[in-house]
Amino acid sequence: MQTRQRQLANRRAAKKKLWWWIGGGVLALAILCLGFLYLRGFFRSEVEYKITNGPSLEDPRFPLLVVSLSNALPTSGRLTDYWSGADAIYAARIDAIKSAKRTIHFETYYMTPGRRADEFAAALSDRAQAGVEVQLLIDDYGTDSIPSEYWQRLQQAGVEVRFFREFDWRAPLEYNSRTHRKLLLIDGQRVLIGGAGVSDDWDGDPEIGDTAPWLEFEASYTGEVVSLLEGNFFQNWAYVGGTVDLAQDVIKVQPEKGTPLYITNDTSTLSESTIRMLFQVSFLAARERIWIGSPYFVPDRNTRNVLIQARQKGVDVRVLTMGQKNDKPIVRFASRELYGELLEAGVQVCEYQPSMMHAKLALIDDDWVSTGSANFDPRSYHHNDELNISTNNTQLIEKTDNLFQNALDNSNYLTRIEWQNRSATEKLLGQIGLIFKPLL
């Protein structure tokens, strides 16, 4: 009898010890998570500031403010092409790659296995085997679904592949900062820039209910802007251990000038954001309209204040963003939690209906446009390497306006009543998403 009681006591003691270990492990994990968030500045209070008396787009001071406040690089170039939709964008990229005679430099965030990735690899391999220098700078996190065999086949064909910020246990916090740029440079003479990764997702993703290709665009430029973007590529190429040969005939003085362009090349930092400043200075210059295109629209207090301020002055403020068909529901729920004061001020929130909306655009009046890779969210502001080109180029403004008009015709204009009546589940998920807003 005593032996039986001793066995039961030992079992209870063992279970109690096990639960202590489990509890200790959970507590240690929680401490580690909180430590990570603390070190990343998660609990940092958001600094609010005001910018007053912003000049109009016609004011000669406006370009100076764009350059000085957002660290934009003034340059020039000529818009040569503009494509919208997956088929046109990917066909343009393949054609550009096939035309290369000397160099192909490509930087991207997102790739997945599939038809588009296979076509991309085949075109690159063909040019590499023909003697063209092909260098790929690939984000380590955004392309983690691509098998290693894919990269090995490219390397065997002569393509040089390097990964941006591979995980390093000696600096684990750096892994949260990615390159989000999409940049294709051909022979140092031409650049294609937009927001699309290399993935079949852009053809329409049935898993999220897409009935059409994603809303996306890409633009092509020639001129001096190409040389500056080559330098931007080489900067990151050097940071991943690549060889930068400045003797090669790639970065050169371009004879063609074209229209003024401004490159805002944001780099990850917790306290500053050149992309955010670019947008805010542009919005303050608006007199007629501010049309924003951003799938992941999670604006901070400063950005919301500027939009409300513009609306109070009678500016037509619209936000084109993703609807129910999207690839990041938690981001949509979090962003919707922030719509209340915008809707009350008269800002129109337009949720795209046919498919995922992925284009990143800002159109100011009929005289200024900014396009590229940056979203209106903390990731683009503070964590990612981003790249936007801003200009008063009339061709780009007209094409961007057409893209907006067509998309707005296929969007649901969210009403304040509809926003107030969203489900309790959505509100709860939105509040949870906002808890982790600095990481979205």
Automatic annotation (TrEMBL):
UniProt keyword annotation of Oxidoreductase present: no
TM annotation in the entry: 20-39
GO BP terms: cardiolipin biosynthetic process
Keyword terms of this UniProt record: Membrane, Transmembrane, Transmembrane helix
Top-level taxon in the UniProt lineage: Bacteria
GO molecular function: cardiolipin synthase activity
Name of protein: Phospholipase D/Transphosphatidylase
Species per Swiss-Prot/TrEMBL record: Chroococcidiopsis thermalis (strain PCC 7203)
Source species taxonomy: Bacteria, Bacillati, Cyanobacteriota, Cyanophyceae, Chroococcidiopsidales
